[in-house]
């Protein structure tokens, strides 16, 4: 029984990482129907941005939790800005081009990011100069470390903030409006370009935050770390219903739990096969996802 | 239709060319050593890709041996020269690199790091009648085809698994967890250790494979904790090894941890955190740091290249020396003669001890030691 | 997202022989192209004689230089051409983005590898199984996803590529992480064995290139381009888009599988790292660089991508960085590729048969 609770806790923990990345995927897709393939690499970029800040100013910041928050904020601004630039340079010129062109561009952006980092920092993994450690908490025989709890708390705070932003503010209303009908928004005087930029900023900043958290928690970062998590985040977004923000979080938690249990029964080496197999199965059975509404391809 | 006429014409042309060329060099092997000038040694080693850090260590080690032999007048009056080609730890790149070395006319290959990248090069060298003294790659699959030209200079998984099992038995562990990273090198060792331990009567509590390159190993960690193992043997590389040690400790694991030679790197201690890594054991071939007289060699290496020797510098150094020894005793560089000479070497001194090849062309003695992490480095475990 | 009103109009125009040209264009927005060197070049590239010259050169390579190295990288390059031409059917002709194309390459390589090493089949006898396995793979993955939006296909194929690679890595009969070794070749015909493999490969690849090029010009090829340019209009004109897309996907799968078989015979040892995502991405790069839908362009793109790194041995990470940037630059500035398909279809012969 204690084993069961441990599996649930592990699943929730991994799921919260997936959720932060999946949110950005889902948000961008919801608004401009673009599958931002490079999104996982922005997570990686966040981890390296944090790493750079730490290497330069580790002394000034000291160690510990507060330093982590500061670094995370800096990395979020950095990756957010990068997301805006990426949209401007690579995606905006192609907004009216066939979907295939944009997808290929996104693959190119992903490649350029990964190997740009590989060339800059070298292909070997880097060790994060600070780590979060500390004691652990026992819950009914299962263990969860304080570091894990802190990470999950940060993730929840970020998600709640995003949800409030999208549902309660004027900017959020503009985002929702554009996802419904971009042309009508344009006619109503909404600055569509600016809202799209803002969406990219938010999505990329969340991914960047997740990257820093992963770096600090696991302690090791490398230039390919975004590849698998990008795939998993997409899977989560599809499970939840792509374009639906609460769905993305739900999908991420479902995926985290599924993987946790899948690994327990099949062994770690089958984890990715299990996750992607589930994606294919899900697309066959319920392509709109758990919370997604029917999407018809508009002509 | 024009197309058909064109196709017929093309076929005829090619057939014609084919007939005229029979007996040309299309039916013979690659370019062989000419018997004059430098004796060329070829080395495939990763200079790019995931294992790019290893390449320079191997190259410098081999170069040191080449320079030493040349300074003493070479072999049979001929000087040695080293040609290095990238294998990138990728089978296709390695095969192309091997073909390049064959075309360059190397007499002996003294390279090979990644087992899966070395496998496709075996038949290329074999067809060209070129002996291979493989310094690093050590999967048992390399010698499974029983090709006459393949010799392994590194202790194999078999020997490492033996050393590990003996040590585990001597420790009196009651239940062992085996963890590998699902690469050829790593699973080879865990599978063999598994067999050995069962024969020795030690319980293998769980056997898990993780995916290299990931960060979260909670699945494997849970399995280890759930199995109540008191010793974990990790046979993968240091990146994942460091994370595993850290996550095992964070999850409250109290037992011993042992790693295989792929994890013997100071980065392991950095990733795991120095506190977590204290007392972690390792199975490792003998290194200059741990053998008498080794310090001198390290100094020579450092003076020449400005860096300390790294993983497999010693094996690469030995590979060149063994190659030279075999050519010397064969008298010339013909592939068959050198292979025969290699098979007959007995007691030639290399870092892992006196050299003798088994009938399978592996080392008769692997020379594995047990190391332990003290402070920020590995030391011999008494 | 598309300019909606014109879709049907274009669909009607498509039927008029005078405007068939529209379908032959690259994926880019249909703006008039300036005449110039590229057009002249692509005109030259569409010439049948050029194809012939390249084919003869490929077949005659061993007479020009038969060093082991040249034969080795020549065979690699030809296999890569086959892969690129196969992916061109899926991406270039039909507009479906497949990011896991290496999966079919792996299926073909492993099917022939397992049968020849574990069951002792001669290499050539494994061909029907290779084709059947590739088709089965295409059915499993294409069945559920080709009905969905095209972007889902991209990620699902990517996941599929990973599934195949990890499965091959985890199973025992595929040799696990070390893969299979000691795979036989097609027989040496009294020649040096690598030259024999080279010639078999060259012959198969020449036929494959020709086949794909003619497939693209035929009735099904027109249907593919129609679906690519406007799926809804194609559907409205009575094309069963699902079936047509399926045909493209399966054709691509078979090309990939056969290329895998050639690869297994050529390398003699195959292992999972050879079939990772980088491979899929490199093949896609060859197709995009050369010009999606243009067979000569794709062949040249593939030769360039395959041979350049051999010329620049060592600069691997830079290579991928440049590839990534190139993908963006090409899509933004020159979506039809460097050597696009000729704007029009070839002039019809009297009876309108295939040219």
UniProtKB/TrEMBL annotation, chain A:
Q: Which Pfam families match?
A: BPD_transp_2
GO terms for MF: L-isoleucine transmembrane transporter activity; L-leucine transmembrane transporter activity; L-phenylalanine transmembrane transporter activity; L-valine transmembrane transporter activity
- Lipid bilayer topology: Multi-pass membrane protein
Q: Which CDD domains did the record assign?
A: TM_PBP1_LivH_like
Q: Which GO terms describe its biological process?
A: D-alanine transmembrane transport; L-alanine transport; L-isoleucine import across plasma membrane
Give the subcellular location: Cell membrane
Q: Which UniProt keywords apply?
A: Amino-acid transport, Cell inner membrane, Cell membrane, Membrane, Transmembrane, Transmembrane helix, Transport
Primary location group: membrane
Which Gene Ontology terms of cellular component type are present? plasma membrane
According to the record, the segments passing through the membrane are 12-35, 42-61, 67-90, 102-124, 144-166, 200-218, 224-242, 249-267, 273-292
By sequence similarity, the record places it as follows: Belongs to the binding-protein-dependent transport system permease family. LivHM subfamily.
What is this protein called in UniProt?
A: Branched-chain amino acid ABC transporter permease
UniProtKB/TrEMBL annotation, chain B:
Task: Tell me the domain of life.
Answer: Bacteria
Q: Where is the Leucine-binding protein domain?
A: 39-360
Which first-to-last residue range defines the signal peptide? 1-23
Per the similarity annotation, which family is this? Belongs to the leucine-binding protein family.
Recorded hits in Pfam families, A to Z, give:
Peripla_BP_6 (PF13458)
Biological source species: Solihabitans fulvus
Organism lineage reads as: Bacteria, Bacillati, Actinomycetota, Actinomycetes, Pseudonocardiales
Recorded hits in InterPro entries, A to Z, give: Leu-bd (IPR028081), Leu_Ile_Val-bd (IPR000709), Peripla_BP_I (IPR028082)
An annotated GO BP: amino acid transport
Protein name from the UniProt record:
Branched-chain amino acid ABC transporter substrate-binding protein
Question: Which CDD domains does the record cross-reference, listed alphabetically?
Answer: PBP1_ABC_LIVBP-like (cd06342)
The alphabetized UniProt keywords are: Amino-acid transport, Signal, Transport
Automatic annotation (TrEMBL), chain C:
Say if the entry is tagged with keyword Transmembrane helix. Answer: yes
Entry keyword annotation includes Repressor = no
List the InterPro entries. ABC_transp_permease, LivM-like
The record's subcellular locations are:
Cell membrane
Q: Which domain of life is it from?
A: Bacteria
Give an example GO molecular function.
Answer: branched-chain amino acid transmembrane transporter activity
State the annotated membrane topology for this chain. Multi-pass membrane protein
Transmembrane stretches in the record are 49-65, 77-108, 120-140, 152-168, 196-216, 246-265, 277-308, 320-339
Q: Name where it mostly resides.
A: membrane
- For this UniProt record, give its keywords in alphabetical order, as a comma-separated list: Cell membrane, Membrane, Transmembrane, Transmembrane helix
Q: Name one Pfam family in it.
A: BPD_transp_2
Gene Ontology CC: one annotated term:
plasma membrane
Name of protein? Branched-chain amino acid ABC transporter permease
Origin species, per record, is Solihabitans fulvus
């Amino acid at each position: 029984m204690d084993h069961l609770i441990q599996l649930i806790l592990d699943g929730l923990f991994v799921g919260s990482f997936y959720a932060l990345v999946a949110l950005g995927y889902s948000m961008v897709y919801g608004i401009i129907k673009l599958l931002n393939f490079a999104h996982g690499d922005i997570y990686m970029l966040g981890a390296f941005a944090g790493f750079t800040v730490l290497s330069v100013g580790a002394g000034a910041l000291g160690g510990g939790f507060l330093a982590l928050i500061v670094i995370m904020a800096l990395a979020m601004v950095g990756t957010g800005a990068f997301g805006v630039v990426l949209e401007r340079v690579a995606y905006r010129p192609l907004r009216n081009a066939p979907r295939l062109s944009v997808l290929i561009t996104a693959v190119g952006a992903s490649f350029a990011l990964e190997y740009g980092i590989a060339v800059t920092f070298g292909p070997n993994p880097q060790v994060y100069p600070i780590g979060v450690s500390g004691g652990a908490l026992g819950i009914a025989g299962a263990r969860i470390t304080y570091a894990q709890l802190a990470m999950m708390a940060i993730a929840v705070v970020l998600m709640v903030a995003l949800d409030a932003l999208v549902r309660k503010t004027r900017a959020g209303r503009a985002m929702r409006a554009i996802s419904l009908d971009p042309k009508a928004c344009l006619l109503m005087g909404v600055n569509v370009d600016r809202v799209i930029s803002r969406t990219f900023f938010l999505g990329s900043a969340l991914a960047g935050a997740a990257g820093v958290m992963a770096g600090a928690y696991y302690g090791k970062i490398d230039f390919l770390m975004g590849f698998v998590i990008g795939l998993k985040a997409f899977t989560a977004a599809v499970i939840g219903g792509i374009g639906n923000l609460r769905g993305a979080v739900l999908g991420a938690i479902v995926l985290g739990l599924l993987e946790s249990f899948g690994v327990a029964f099949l062994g770690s080496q089958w984890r990715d096969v299990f996750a992607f197999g589930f994606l294919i199965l899900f697309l066959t059975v319920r392509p709109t996802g758990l919370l997604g509404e029917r999407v018809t391809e508009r002509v | 239709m024009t197309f058909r006429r064109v196709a017929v014409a093309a076929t005829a042309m090619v057939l014609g060319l084919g007939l005229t060329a029979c007996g040309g060099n299309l039916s013979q092997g690659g370019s062989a050593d000419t018997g004059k000038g430098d004796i060329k040694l070829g080395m495939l080693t990763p200079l790019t890709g995931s294992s790019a850090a290893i390449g320079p260590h191997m190259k410098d080690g081999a170069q040191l041996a080449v320079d030493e032999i040349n300074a003493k007048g070479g072999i049979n009056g001929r000087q040695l020269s080293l040609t290095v080609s990238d294998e990138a730890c990728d089978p296709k790149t390695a095969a192309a690199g091997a073909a390049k070395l064959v075309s360059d006319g190397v007499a002996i290959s003294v390279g090979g790091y990644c087992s899966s990248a070395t496998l496709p090069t075996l038949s290329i060298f074999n067809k060209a009648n070129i002996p291979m003294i493989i310094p690093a790659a050590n999967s048992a699959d390399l010698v499974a085809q029983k090709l006459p030209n393949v010799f392994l200079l590194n202790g194999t998984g078999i020997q490492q698994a033996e050393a590990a099992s003996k040590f585990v038995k001597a420790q009196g562990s009651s239940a062992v967890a085996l963890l590998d990273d699902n690469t050829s090198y790593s699973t080879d060792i865990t599978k063999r250790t598994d067999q050995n331990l069962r024969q020795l009567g030690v319980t293998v509590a769980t056997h898990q494979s993780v995916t290299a390159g990931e960060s979260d190993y909670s699945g494997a960690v849970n399995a280890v904790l759930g199995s109540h193992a008191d010793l974990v043997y990790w046979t993968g590389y240091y990146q994942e090894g460091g994370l595993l040690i850290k996550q095992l400790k964070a999850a409250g694991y109290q037992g011993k941890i042992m790693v295989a030679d792929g994890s013997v790197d100071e980065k392991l201690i950095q990733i795991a955190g120095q506190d977590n890594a204290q007392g972690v054991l390792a199975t490792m071939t003998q290194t200059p740091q741990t053998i008498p007289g080794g310090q001198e060699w390290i100094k020579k290496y450092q003076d020449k290249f400005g860096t300390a020797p790294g993983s497999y510098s010693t094996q690469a150094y030995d590979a060149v020396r063994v190659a030279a020894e075999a050519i010397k005793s064969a008298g010339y560089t013909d592939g068959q003669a050198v292979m025969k000479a290699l098979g007959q070497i007995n007691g030639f001194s290399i870092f892992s001890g006196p050299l003798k090849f088994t009938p399978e062309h592996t080392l008769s003695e692997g020379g594995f030691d047990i190391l332990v992490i003290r402070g920020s480095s590995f030391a011999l475990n008494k | 997202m598309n300019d909606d009103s014109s879709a049907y109009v274009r669909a009607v125009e498509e039927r008029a022989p005078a405007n068939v040209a529209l379908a032959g264009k690259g994926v880019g927005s249909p703006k008039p192209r300036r005449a110039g060197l590229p057009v002249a070049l692509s005109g030259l590239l569409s010439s049948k004689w050029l194809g012939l010259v390249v084919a003869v050169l490929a077949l005659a390579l061993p007479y020009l230089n038969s060093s082991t190295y040249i034969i080795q990288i020549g065979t690699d390059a030809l296999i890569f051409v086959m892969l690129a031409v196969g992916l061109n059917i899926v991406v270039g002709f039909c507009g479906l983005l497949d990011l896991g194309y290496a999966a079919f390459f792996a299926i073909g390589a492993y099917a022939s590898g397992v049968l020849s090493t574990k069951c002792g089949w001669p290499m050539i006898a494994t061909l029907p199984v290779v084709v059947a396995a590739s088709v089965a793979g295409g059915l499993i993955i294409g069945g559920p996803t080709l009905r969905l939006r095209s972007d889902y296909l991209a990620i699902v194929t990517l996941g599929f590529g990973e599934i195949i690679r990890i499965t091959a890595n985890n199973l025992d009969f595929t040799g696990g992480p070390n893969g299979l070794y000691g795979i036989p070749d097609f027989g040496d015909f009294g020649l040096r064995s690598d030259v024999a493999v080279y010639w078999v490969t060259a012959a198969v690849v020449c036929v494959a290139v020709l086949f794909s090029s003619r497939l693209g010009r035929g009735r099904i090829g027109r249907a593919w381009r129609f679906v690519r340019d406007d799926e809804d209009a194609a559907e409205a004109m009575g094309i069963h888009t699902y079936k047509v897309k399926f045909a493209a996907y399966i054709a691509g799968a078979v090309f990939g599988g056969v290329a895998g078989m050639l690869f297994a015979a050529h390398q003699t040892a195959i292992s999972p790292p050879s079939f990772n995502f980088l491979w899929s991405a490199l093949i896609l790069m060859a197709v995009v660089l050369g010009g999606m839908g243009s067979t000569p362009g794709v062949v040249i793109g593939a030769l360039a991508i395959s041979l350049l790194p051999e010329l620049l041995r060592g600069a691997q990470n830079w290579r991928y960085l440049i590839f990534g940037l190139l993908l963006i630059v090409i899509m933004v500035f020159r979506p039809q590729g460097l050597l696009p398909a000729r704007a029009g279809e070839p002039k019809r012969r009297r009876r309108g048969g295939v040219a």
